[in-house]
Amino acid sequence: MIGDRWGVSDSEVSRPYPCDGFVTAPALRAWRGVTVEAPAEAVWPWVTQVRVAPYSYDWIDNFGRRSPRRLLDLPEPEVGEGFTASGGRRLGRVVSVEPGRQLTGTVMGAFLSYVLVPAGNGTTRLLLKVVMRANRWAAPVLSVGDLAMARRQLLNFKLLAERRGR
Fold first, then answer.
1. Fewest Cβ atoms nearer than 10 Å: which of 17, 28, 85, 132?
2. Beta-bridge partners for 8
3. Distance CA 136, CA 71 (A)
4. Nearest CA among 111, 81, 110 for reference residue 94
5. CB proximity list for 82: less than 8 A, separation 6 or greater
6. How many whole angstroms separate alpha carbon 75 and alpha carbon 152?
7. Which residues contact 136 (CB under 8 A, 6 or more apart)?
């Protein structure tokens, strides 16, 4: 599918993700990944802040509000709480969490898993998989749209985690 992979290896695509257990026979499957020059414990707090802002293109998906550029004093995510926010409005819900390792949520019919994999030398692979039961004709369009937004989000998390690690 067009736009289904960015920054991931074949082994990262073939590994299991928590979101896989929530959608049988998804029409949309997309994988994204980035290497962060910081340990997982420095990356995790930024990933959990997806609960308060999208960290993508704020002018599009946050109604012009800037996603926080400093860490907030948030508790660990819990199953059932809001998964993300846009323009200050809560969206979706957390469906699975392993603190420091993975955060999975659902929003607008999609299930997303952020997975942190220590990669040695103090680096972390930040992986994202998105699955959705969608119309097979709409799936390619959704995949390309998600690619642009998810890429920006992961690069923002990378930048923020690396800046804090210095």
1. 85
2. none
3. 39
4. 81
5. 51, 90, 91, 92, 93, 94
6. 25
7. 27
DSSP state of 129: E
The pTM score is 0.89
Kindly give the confidence (pLDDT) of every residue in the chain, 166 residues in length, as a single tens digit, with 9 standing for 90 and above.
557 888 999 999 999 999 999 998 888 889 999 999 999 999 999 999 999 987 876 655 655 677 778 999 999 999 999 999 887 778 899 999 999 999 999 988 889 999 999 998 999 999 999 998 865 545 444 544 565 678 889 999 999 999 965 4
How many angstroms separate the CA atoms of 150 and 54, rounded?
A: 9
99-115-15-138 Cα dihedral, nearest 10 degrees: 130
Structure tokens at 106: 């659902």
